Amino acid sequence: MSEFPNELFYTKSHEWVRRDGDNTYTVGITDHAQSQLGDIVFVELPEVDIDVSASDEVAVVESVKTAADIYTPLSGKIIEVNEKLSAAPETINGDPYVDGWIFRIEATDVAELDDLMNAEDYEAEISEENDEE
User: Fold this and answer.
1) Is residue 40 helix, strand or coil?
2) Which one of 31, 51, 63, 133 is at 20 to 30 Å from 70 when CA atoms are compared?
3) Where are the domains of the chain?
4) Which SS3 state, helix, strand or coil, does residue 28 take?
């Protein structure tokens, strides 16, 4: 069973967003996403100091099974990436919500958070996906 921390926001494409304060947010992939991918073997991190728009593809996570694009849930500037993932991409499998974060963004339009789901809605979304399979 996947975990869905209540303090996070979620996307349909399985990214999570944590508010850090002062328009800064941390982004990663959900526990559900990492479990679907399997053993993660490589992470292509986004560039720092680039401007992005919500839904832009900014990173790639590769597992032994497949590769998955990672999209930014918010518009803004990428201000930091999790360099630890370059040497230890499997960190995402072990701890997707804390040590396995992918990037931090300084958001330019916090109203975009309204387009994201809370934990309860995301869990319902996952249940619907599983019912369709």
Assistant:
1) strand
2) 133
3) 10-128
4) strand
Give the span between the Cα atoms of 61 and 82, in whole angstroms. 13
pTM comes to 0.95
DSSP 80-133: EE-THHHH-TTHHHH-TTTTT--EEEEES-GGGGGGSB-HHHHHHHHHHHHHH-
Q: Using one digit for the tens of pLDDT, what is the confidence trace for 67-90? A: 999 999 999 999 999 999 999 999
The owner of tokens 């998955």 is 68
Tokens of residue 102, six digits: 């992918």
Q: Are strands 57-63 and 67-71 parallel, antiparallel or unpaired?
A: antiparallel
Give domain 10-128's CATH architecture.
Beta Barrel (2.40)
